[in-house]
Amino acid sequence: MILAIDIGNTNIVLGCVEGKKTFFIERLSTDKAKTELEYAVSLKNVLEIYEIPVDQIEGGIINEARLSWGAWTVIFSLPLFSMLVAMQTAYYTVKRTLEKMM
After folding, report:
1. pLDDT tens digit string along 7-51?
2. In angstroms, how far is CA 5 from the centroid of its own chain?
3. What is the CA radius of gyration of the chain?
């Protein structure tokens, strides 16, 4: 299952897809004042509402094609982006460790 995220100026659109099946599409408000924890709780709540176990998410896509390099600098500083990078790094670190143990 893939978690797709489209970061917009007003909304962040989230969706989970697997093959041709879409499990959900939801919107969160884009708010630069939100912390990593607030975005994490929002994301966790959406996944729980749709009964999506985190261990079934195998990858992710982040999209914002309309942004200039200057705008990307702002995105890189947003808590959501930081949280997603940290989650991805932690996931692959744990995955590699478990693979080495087996």
Report:
1. 777 888 899 988 889 999 999 988 878 877 788 888 889 989 999
2. 6
3. 14
